[in-house]
Amino acid sequence: MKGIVIALLGLILPAAALAQKLPDPDKVAPQYHDAAEKRRAEIMSRLACTRQAEKEKVLKRDLAAYINRCMDAAEKARAVEVSNPKP
């Protein structure tokens, strides 16, 4: 029984260790702060689009196209928000 548990943990833990971590802008060198913020925003946007795709039960074959459209729409919305700030 213990052997099975150890084998399962051996399979699960390496996958978790390889997961992409969100960059923390405060933990990078000052010259890379802006790039880290931009990368963090991009990853958060992708995660939100992926969650939305899961919620809408998008087929795996259509997942990449769905996420790309979602991210393009988010980028356009962000551009409009920046050009038209709220008073």
What are its keywords?
single chain; 3 helices; 0% strand; mainly alpha; 87 residues; flat
Concise structural overview:
The chain is mainly alpha-helical and 87 residues long. The chain is built from 3 helices and no strands. The longest helix is centred in the C-terminal third of the chain and has 24 residues.
Q: Mind sketching the topology for me?
A:
Layout: H1 2-17, H2 33-55, H3 60-83
Helix pairs in contact: 2-3
Q: Roughly what fraction of the amino acids lie in strands?
A: under 5%
Count of alpha/pi helices? 3
Main structural class: mainly alpha
Summarize the amount of helix as a percent range: over 70%
Unreliable spans? none
First-last Cα distance: 64 Å
Instruction: Describe the sheet with the most strands.
Output: none
- Given the C-alpha coordinates, what overall shape results? flat
List the secondary-structure elements in sequence, H or E.
Answer: HHH
Report the radius of gyration as a whole number of Å: 18 Å
DSSP E strands, number: 0
What's the rounded overall pLDDT mean? 82
